[in-house]
């Protein structure tokens, strides 16, 4: 066991973790963040995506101890100001959510993309979510949502 | 008006916030964890089970076997033939033998690895052809599960009068549902002593009854709740974790959680049936189909699940959506020691679509006719007779879907070598085949003056909750969505049947309309429509007890004739045409679906955005079925060797919604869930032929298979 400290969704957090514990396990089991989903446990589906220093990572492959000193974001961050992020609004409006199991991971990948690239084209969007599987939507309405949100974020700037 | 509008899905907000509670999210730290010990052999007698090491492990609470089942150790959606826990014999790799319950997941999983099982292997019946010859019987009654025929006219005579006859064999493989959320659930005993299970499921009332039989308690003492469900596609129709959770709760008297790993999910649930299809098509020079003869051989695995259903549905849909005067179909399902095959989006029809659409293209080629023209010529339309001689009186919009595609088809231009275009059509009977499949619901008011809908329909992500609310609002003539939804709980709802066979919009939608009509009459009498506020009506009514309005619908069908399957097995059919452009790299064998036009006759689109979502998702699954997905028994255990389409594999999709209203449906609606997938693989295969000259008759056309076929073609 060791103690790690990191910023979780903007708040300083310290927890004790086992040496071989994954970040996915620590977030779900120790911190009750169940928005981080497990779809495969071995880095093949992206449902467990979290942002580490704003870059998407598979939390099932990330050791919890690696979070020490880092900035970790889960989907809760997007609405932490009390209003929905434009991406969340757009996901709802564009029909990007069906069963919703992939949704938190998709939103985080999209958020990270928009931080780096305010004006992504269709290809950029496809690539940004290519590590995240969705069995329901065929990705099309997810991509539309990201495109629409990017427009809105641009206007907000 | 709510119908036809893109009403925001009622479940979407929780899902984007990350607060939607999926089954595994319901877990807390006081719960025991249960996991399953599975057979490592495809076919064997169990000689000895030694669980002593597992039981000796600190934190192990129970190891349960078939001996611990107080009721009947058999379940099954159609017939009760599959043991919850094996008794003396295992019939497929992955069959459940024991349930290990521990204080944590780690302990339970570790303990399950310590169980030692001695097997005596039996012959592994590895395919249906071996099964039909083998003296080894998987069940005492023999290895043939089911044989269904469709006989219409005289196929022999039909072929005699044909100018051209095309005969080929097609085959498909096991497909996994691969929902992103694996099977999971929790269970506990409530203050009444009832067993409660909340799980990821497509049918709560069915599971309630199975648990009751397993535990030998009345169904009223079982409550099944649908947690937010991360996809189903047919794979969460059969009992998965629910029985084991209930059994563990029964014995430990403590709350229990279960969750399959991805590997267990692959091992533990049913698959799409691999079908082997011999197909003979006859036509005149003018392109009119004269006869079809089909021989279907299916591998259903060792237990029935939905094997009989698939056997019949595949037979009934074997001709595709065309008028064929002479039809002979033999459809047979054999037991094997492969994974249990069951329900998966389309119940055998996507496999048949591969065959009938390939055949039609070959006929067209032989007589020099355009693939679109031959489809238009033979299309089922109003007044047509289907293969079961059912007259289509209404809502038969195949021609309209073809016309929707026509401008794109006529304007198609190949983009250099490797570019090609293909068509695929389908029809699909909505609801179960030739049997009663009713849905019920009820409506009431809240004391605060809101309408309350009690629904037993499982929304598995396709959006039925929203659609049913839209239907109800319009049926009541409400101006805003003042409705509370009480859903997915056997304690508070009536049986709506399973979320399967694309039936919920049509059948449960009609049940809602039926209840709404009664509520409407009541409201009329109370003066609601002349302006009296609902609040006042409810306040006055509350004193006498708020009224309850039950709704019910069972689509009118007839049982298929046992010998010929003639009859009206479905009350209505959906129709669709997909056109697909592919690009094939002739050196590497990589095929990319570039663009899809998908036209669907849905009767009426209650929610256009949802309909499009179903179409896009169906196209994705069709791309997987055509080009990459293959479950290999004994090998496949993760997404490392089971490939799903990613965003990079998706074509651009243009959805075209055709609305040929169905008079028996809610506001004219039918269904779209399965139809969205059915013609897609066929359209891709036809496009590959157009692009390369190579006809692929075996799915998937993955890189290796396609490359080999292209090389062979070059040598020829
Ligand atoms: S759970 Fe981490 S990638 Fe699938
Ligand atoms: S919405 Fe179901 S997996 Fe993406």
Ordered list of secondary-structure elements with their pairings:
The complex is a heterodimer of chains A (157) and B (716).
Chain A lengths: L1 E7 L2 E7 L5 H8 L18 E4 L2 E4 L12 E3 L12 H8 L9 H14 L5 H7 L11 H17 L1
Parallel strand pairs in A: 1-5
Antiparallel strand pairs in A: 1-2, 3-4, 3-5
Helix pairs in contact in A: 2-5
Chain B lengths: L11 H6 L14 E7 L5 E7 L1 H5 L3 E5 L24 E2 L5 E7 L2 H10 L1 E6 L6 H6 L10 E9 L2 H6 L3 E8 L12 E6 L5 E5 L4 H12 L6 E5 L14 H12 L3 E4 L2 H7 L6 E9 L5 E13 L5 H10 L9 E10 L13 H19 L3 H8 L19 H13 L8 E11 L9 E7 L5 E5 L8 H13 L6 E5 L16 H23 L7 H9 L6 E5 L19 E13 L4 E12 L6 H20 L24 E7 L21 H13 L10 H13 L1
Parallel strand pairs in B: 1-12, 10-11, 14-15, 18-19, 22-23
Antiparallel strand pairs in B: 1-5, 2-4, 2-6, 3-5, 7-15, 8-13, 9-10, 9-12, 13-14, 16-21, 17-18, 17-20, 21-22
The complex binds FE2/S2 (inorganic) cluster (2 copies).
Q: Can you tell me the CATH topology of the largest domain in chain B? A: Aldehyde Oxidoreductase, domain 4
The number of E-state strands of chain B comes to: 23
Structural class given helices, strands, pairing of chain B? alpha+beta
Distance between the termini of chain B: 62 Å
Secondary-structure element string of chain A = EEHEEEHHHH
Overview of the structural elements:
The complex is a heterodimer of chains A (157) and B (716). With 157 residues, chain A is an alpha+beta fold. Chain A has helices at 23-30, 86-93, 103-116, 122-128, 140-156, and strands at 2-8, 11-17, 49-52, 55-58, 71-73. Chain A contains five helices and five strands; from the N terminus they run E-E-H-E-E-E-H-H-H-H. Chain A has a five-stranded mixed sheet, sandwiched between helices. In chain A, strand 3 and strand 4 form a beta hairpin. The longest helix of chain A has 17 residues, at 140-156. Chain A is globular. Chain A starts with a strand and ends with a helix. Chain B is built from 18 helices and 23 strands. In chain B, the strands form five sheets. Chain B has a seven-stranded mixed sheet with strand order 3-5-1-12-9-10-11, with helices on both faces. In chain B, strands 7-15-14-13-8 form a five-stranded mixed sheet. In chain B, helix 6 (204-215) crosses helix 7, helix 10 runs parallel beside helix 17 and helix 16 crosses helix 17. At the A-B interface, helix 2, helix 3, helix 4 and helix 5 of A face helix 1 and helix 16 of B. One FE2/S2 (inorganic) cluster binds next to loops of chain A.
């Amino acid at each position: 066991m060791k103690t790690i400290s990191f910023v979780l969704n903007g708040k300083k957090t310290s927890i004790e973790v086992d040496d071989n514990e994954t970040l996915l396990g620590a977030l779900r089991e120790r911190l009750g963040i169940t928005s981080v989903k497990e779809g495969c446990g071995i880095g093949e589906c992206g449902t467990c995506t979290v942002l580490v220093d704003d870059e998407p990572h598979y939390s099932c492959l990330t050791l919890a101890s690696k979070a020490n000193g880092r900035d970790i974001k889960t989907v809760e961050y997007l609405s932490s100001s009390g209003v929905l992020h434009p991406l969340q609004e757009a996901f709802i409006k564009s029909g990007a959510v069906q069963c919703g199991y992939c949704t938190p991971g998709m939103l985080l990948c999209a958020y990270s993309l928009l931080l780096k690239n305010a004006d992504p084209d269709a290809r950029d969007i496809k690539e940004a979510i290519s590590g995240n599987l969705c069995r329901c939507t065929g990705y099309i309405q997810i991509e539309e949502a990201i495109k629409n949100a990017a427009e809105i974020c641009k206007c907000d700037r | 008006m709510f119908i036809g509008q893109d009403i925001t899905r009622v479940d979407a907000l929780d899902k984007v916030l990350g607060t939607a509670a999926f089954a595994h999210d319901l877990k807390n730290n006081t719960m025991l964890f249960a996991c399953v010990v599975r057979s490592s052999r495809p076919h064997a007698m169990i000689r000895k089970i030694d669980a002593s090491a597992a039981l000796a492990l600190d934190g192990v609470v129970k190891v349960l076997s078939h001996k611990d089942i107080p009721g009947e150790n058999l379940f099954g959606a159609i017939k009760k033939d599959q043991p919850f826990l094996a008794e003396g014999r295992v019939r497929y790799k992955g069959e459940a033998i024991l349930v290990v319950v521990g204080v944590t997941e780690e302990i339970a999983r570790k303990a399950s690895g310590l169980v030692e099982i001695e097997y005596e292997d039996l012959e592994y019946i590895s395919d249906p052809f071996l099964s039909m010859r083998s003296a080894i019987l998987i069940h005492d009654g023999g290895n043939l599960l089911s044989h269904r025929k469709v006989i219409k006219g005289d196929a022999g005579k039909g072929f005699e009068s044909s100018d051209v006859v095309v005969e080929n064999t097609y085959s498909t493989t096991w497909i996994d549902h691969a929902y992103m959320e694996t099977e999971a659930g929790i269970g506990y005993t409530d203050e009444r002593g009832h067993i409660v299970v909340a799980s990821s499921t497509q049918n709560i009332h069915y599971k309630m009854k199975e648990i009751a039989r397993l535990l030998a308690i009345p169904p009223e003492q079982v409550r099944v709740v649908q947690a937010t469900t991360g996809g189903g596609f047919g794979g969460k129709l059969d009992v998965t974790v629910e029985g084991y959770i209930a059994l563990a709760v029964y014995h430990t008297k403590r709350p229990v959680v279960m969750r399959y790993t991805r590997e267990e999910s692959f091992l533990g649930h049913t698959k799409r049936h691999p079908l082997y299809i011999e197909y003979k098509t006859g036509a005149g020079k003018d392109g009119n189909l004269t006869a079809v003869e089909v021989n279907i051989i299916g591998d259903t695995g060792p237990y029935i699940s939905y094997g009989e259903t698939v056997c019949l549905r595949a037979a009934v849909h074997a001709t595709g959506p065309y008028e064929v005067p002479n039809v002979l179909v033999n459809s047979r399902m054999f037991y094997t020691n492969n994974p249990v095959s069951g329900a998966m989006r389309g119940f055998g029809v996507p496999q048949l679509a591969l065959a009938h659409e390939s055949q039609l293209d070959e006929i067209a080629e032989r007589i020099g006719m355009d693939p679109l023209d031959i489809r238009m010529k033979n299309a089922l339309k109003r007044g047509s007779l289907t293969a079961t001689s059912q007259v289509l009186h209404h809502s038969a919009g195949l021609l309209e879907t073809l016309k929707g595609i026509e401008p794109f088809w006529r304007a198609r231009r190949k983009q250099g070598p490797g570019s090609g275009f293909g068509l695929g059509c389908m029809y699909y009977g909505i609801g179960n085949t030739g049997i009663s499949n009713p849905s019920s619901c009820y409506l009431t008011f809240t004391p605060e003056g809101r309408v309350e809908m009690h629904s037993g329909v499982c929304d598995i992500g396709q959006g039925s909750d929203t659609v049913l609310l839209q239907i109800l609002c319009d049926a009541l003539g409400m101006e805003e969505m003042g409705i509370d939804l009480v859903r997915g709980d056997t304690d508070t709802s009536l049986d709506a049947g399973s979320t399967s066979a694309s039936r919920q919009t049509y059948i449960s939608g009609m049940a809602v309309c039926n209840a709404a009509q009664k509520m409407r009459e009541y409201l009329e009498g109370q003066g609601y429509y002349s302006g009296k506020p609902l609040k006042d009506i409810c306040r006055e009514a509350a004193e006498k007890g708020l009224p309850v309005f039950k709704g019910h619908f069972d689509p009118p069908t007839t049982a298929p004739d046992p010998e010929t399957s003639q009859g009206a097995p479905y009350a209505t059919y959906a129709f669709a045409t997909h056109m697909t452009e592919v690009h094939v790299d002739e050196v590497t064998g990589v095929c990319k679906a570039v663009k899809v036009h998908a036209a669907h006759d849905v009767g009426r689109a209650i929610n256009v955005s949802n309909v499009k979502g179903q179409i896009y998702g169906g196209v994705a699954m069709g791309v997987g079925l055509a080009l990459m997905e293959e479950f290999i028994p004994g090998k496949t255990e993760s997404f490392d060797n089971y490939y799903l389409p990613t965003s990079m594999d998706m074509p651009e999709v243009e959805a075209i919604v055709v609305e040929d209203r169905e008079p028996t449906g809610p506001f004219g609606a039918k269904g779209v869930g399965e139809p969205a997938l059915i013609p897609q693989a066929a359209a891709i295969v036809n496009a590959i032929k157009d692009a390369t000259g190579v006809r692929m008759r075996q799915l998937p056309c993955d890189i290796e298979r396609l490359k080999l076929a292209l090389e062979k073609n070059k040598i020829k």
